Amino acid sequence: MVKTVLLCTFLMLFSACEKQPSPPLSPEEALKTIVLADEDVKIELVAAEPLVQDPVAITFDEAGRLWVVEMLGFMTDIDGSDEKARTGRVSVLFDDNGDGQMDRSSIFLDSLVMPRAIALVKGGILVSENIPLWYAQDTDGDFKADTKVLIDSTYGGSGMPEHSANGLWRGLDNWIYNAKSKYRYKKIDDEWIKDETEFRGQWGIMHDDAGRLFYNYNWSQLHGDLVPPNALMKNKNHTPSSGIDHGLTLEREIFPIRSNTAVNRGYVPGTLDEEGKLLEFASACGPLLYRGNALPDNYNGNAFVCEPTGNLIKRNKITEEGFMLSAQGYYKDKEFLASTDERFRPISLASGPDGAMYVVDMYKGIIQHGPYMSDYLRKVTLERKLDKPVHMGRIWRITKKDNAKIELPDLSQADSKTLVGYLGSANGWLRDIAQRLLVQKGDAIASDLENVLKTQNPLAQLHALWALEGLGLARPENVLPALKSEDPRVAATALRILEKLASDHVDVKVALERFIQEQYDTAHPYLQMQLVLSSDIIDSKVAFAISEKFLKRFGPLPVARDVVMSGMQDREMDLLTKLLSDDAWKNYDQNHEIFTEMLATAVANSGEEKDILQLFKIVNAHQNEDKKWIGSAVVNGIASSRGSNEAGEIVLTAKPSFLENEDRDYPLYKKLTWPDKPKAAIAAVAEYEIDSKVFANGRQKFLNLCANCHGTRGKE
After folding, report:
1. Would strands 124-128 and 133-137 be described as parallel, antiparallel, or unpaired?
2. How far apart (Å, rounded) are the C-alpha atoms in residues 304 and 288?
3. Taking a C-beta distance cutoff of 8 angstroms, is the pair 380, 62 a contact?
4. At residue 673, what are phi and psi to the nearest 5 degrees?
5. CB 532 within 8 A of CB 546
6. Among 639, 620, 640, which Cα is nearest to 630's?
7. At what angle do helices 458-471 and 488-502 cross, to 10 degrees?
8. Degrees (nearest 5) of the Cα angle 657, 660, 665?
């Protein structure tokens, strides 16, 4: 009833606007509707229909050719009737005369169901269809796929366009990462490997110069990783809750320059302003962290986010403090790019070989997927004739106005020495593709890459290190010197690579221990974090020393606690004992309480009975009023562990003496089990039964992310 009233009220307010058709514009007409925030920046057309239709993702190859994923089956009518039709394709666009506009198109692979992402790889492409992931090859050089091999039959998950894996983004570490997915891929010895990683984002993924991954969700415009992929997954006794998927900003406000009544929740108060303009992000997607050299210098490192429902692109300034990241909208009361053309639908962004920013404009009236279309949106869409025409699309290029024409290098025939020279380019696209091609070629060029490490260009050094790693040429003798780099990103990268070598080289472990001991105190926080993340391979005494320092400086940050826990597998009890013996932990501090509980949970998760019994001794030893917080934290930690059997209980060989008084601590009595535990006691607690695994996971997240503000018991 309430929904109906709201809908009727809104329809009366905007009836005139809703019934007015929103006709498609030619590329020339559409260009006039685009407003850029900066006067020294320009936008130009690169391609339009019929050369490109329903584009959703693009990438450039080593010869400057433009590869386009075209989702022709998406919402061809108001009901989405053609979703299962094999009309999707991957096309290659060619600029034959070098004027910056595409002249012809070749269909590389067709008959695809709703394709959504592409990655250029050795010998061909990876392309995601509705659900499967394919490896397609062109064996005769005619830009038409001759083979199509299934890599992953479950890649896309649900198959819903906005809720399925996409991205296929090659990270700096040579793995291919995805949004809306917890998997990454890499070709090793001619075999495609699928590896589990952290879940990230919704539509689109990218990285910055340091290799940190960024992504977003339709309602939250910018998230990113504070730590390297999988770095917090080392400790099987601990479930991290921070470091990955860090929200960089709470800003959701946007500033369209036209009404946006054709939005799914347009009738809900607070969605549109009095002029019918969208107030907040509803479909944030396709982010790009700009790393090119064809825009003004102050653009470098900024994050750009598409909002197709609002017909705009937002610009954010990234701020880095130590190892923490945040973002702020660059402009006040306006956007980097906005259009008065309702069919302008920027859904992804890309960098190009010329250093420019490229915009993928699906140019479509309907952008909402059918299953999520409300009655209100259906009515507005049909009345305003937004359902037709279909199969349009544009690609735009953004550069500074005085940008001199750049002669694009053709790297398709470049030898390895030439490619090494591009690792230090001011254009991030060139650095990335040079690294990819070097790894694909497989040439033994360690000496050339070692020479790059001796330069003063940290960006070149980063790519050289990962090229060595990707080629299998990383050796202690060529990576260890990089630890001395003045750039913390380079030193941290060297440390990550050396971690993998330590198990086979005792001298590497010794060198790392010495480096950590000598450099930790004066290192940049970014490097300090990596030193702690790498502490799992060094002696406990050294690891505990730097972990304690790290907690003392950064303890209030959730990510700091997870970073320390990552390197402490099966050493948690020893660390807890050490911390509780230090004077700094004598008095109550909420950060100490939080970390004590986290350690106790990890100890309980380990299932080591001798350590669990030691936890009981700690509880017994801290019953005085001023120390009771320690006992309570340990009890809470044990109670919120995941247990060692299907029931989520901790299995002991005998009833612990700690529980002689059965009423002393009810949560523990329930959590523990042992042979001949009284059935009556089990029955007595049955009415309070909850899913212990869900509780354990939720408690850890609350403790690390919420307790700083709300207290460890949620009472603040």
Report:
1. antiparallel
2. 5
3. no
4. -140, 155
5. yes
6. 620
7. 20
8. 105
Residue written as tokens 């905007």?
14
483 secondary structure, DSSP code: G
Angular region, 75: left φ>0, alpha ψ -120 to 50, beta rest: left
Residue 518, amino acid: E
For residue 20, what are its two tokens?
A: 């007015």
Strand segments, DSSP code E, in 268-387 are: 285-289, 303-307, 312-321, 324-329, 337-339, 346-351, 357-361
Name beta bridge partners: 359.
349, 396
Per DSSP, 702 falls in state I
Q: Which helix (H) or strand (E) holds 121?
A: strand 117-121
- Enumerate the domain spans of the chain: 2-231+243-400, 569-716
Left (φ > 0), alpha (ψ -120 to 50) or beta: where does 161 sit? alpha
Structure tokens at 32: 């006039």
Q: For the whole prediction, is pTM greater than 0.85?
A: yes
Q: Which residue matches tokens 């060094």?
A: 538
Considering the domain delimited by 2-231+243-400, tell me its CATH architecture: 6 Propeller (2.120)
Count of residues in the chain:
716
Interatomic CA distance for residues 715 and 705, integer angstroms: 15
Q: Is a pLDDT exceeding 90 seen at residue 79?
A: yes
How far is Cα 341 from Cα 335, in angstroms, rounded to an integer?
A: 15
Instruction: Give the residue-averaged pLDDT of 336-342.
Output: 98
Q: Are 221 and 281 in contact (CB under 8 A)?
A: yes
C-alpha to C-alpha distances, 31 to 228, 256, 339, 351, 535, nearest whole angstrom: 40, 16, 9, 20, 54
Q: How many CB atoms lie within 10 A of CB 542?
A: 17
Assign 584 a pLDDT band (cuts: 50, 70, 90).
confident
Beta-ladder partners of 602: none
* Contacts with 531 (C-beta within 8 Å, 6 or more apart), sequence order: 495, 516, 519, 520, 523, 546
CA nearest to 176, candidates 189, 163, 187: 187
Cis amide bond preceding 50, omega within 30: yes
Q: Would you state the torsion angle of the CA atoms of residues 75, 78, 83, 85, taken in this order, to the nearest 10 degrees?
A: -100
Question: Would strands 337-339 and 324-329 be described as parallel, antiparallel, or unpaired?
Answer: unpaired
Q: What is the pLDDT of residues 116-145, one digit of tens each?
A: 999 999 999 999 999 999 999 999 999 999
Dist CA 588 CA 400 (whole Å): 56
Average pLDDT rounded to a whole number, residues 260-272:
92
Neighbour tally for 373: CB within 10 Å: 17
| CA dist 524 → 227, 322, 485, 550 (Å) | 15, 7, 12, 12
Q: What pLDDT is recorded for position 701? A: 61
Pairing of strands 303-307, 312-321: antiparallel
CA distances from 625 to 114, 314, 587, 630, 631 (A): 64, 54, 11, 10, 10
Looking from the CA of 67 toward its CB, the CA atoms found within 13 Å total: 22
pLDDT band at 332 (very low <50, low <70, confident <90, very high): very high
Query: 467 is written with which tokens?
Result: 């090229």
Tell me if 576 sits within 8 A of 599, measured CB to CB.
yes
Contact indicator for 131, 116 with CB cutoff of 8 Å: no
Q: Which candidate, 358, 442, 440, 420, places its Cα nearest to that of 45?
A: 358
Residue 207, both tokens: 């990285």
The string of DSSP letters for 644-667 reads SSTTSPEE-SS--GGGSSTTS-HH
- DSSP H helix total and E strand total for the chain: 22, 28
Q: Which of 74-83, 408-417, 452-461, 672-681 has the lowest mean pLDDT?
A: 672-681
pLDDT digit string, tens, across residues 139-193: 999 999 999 999 999 999 988 888 999 999 999 999 999 999 999 999 998 899 9
User: Which residues lie across from 346 on neighbouring strands?
Assistant: 361
CA dist 419 and 401 (Å) reads: 29
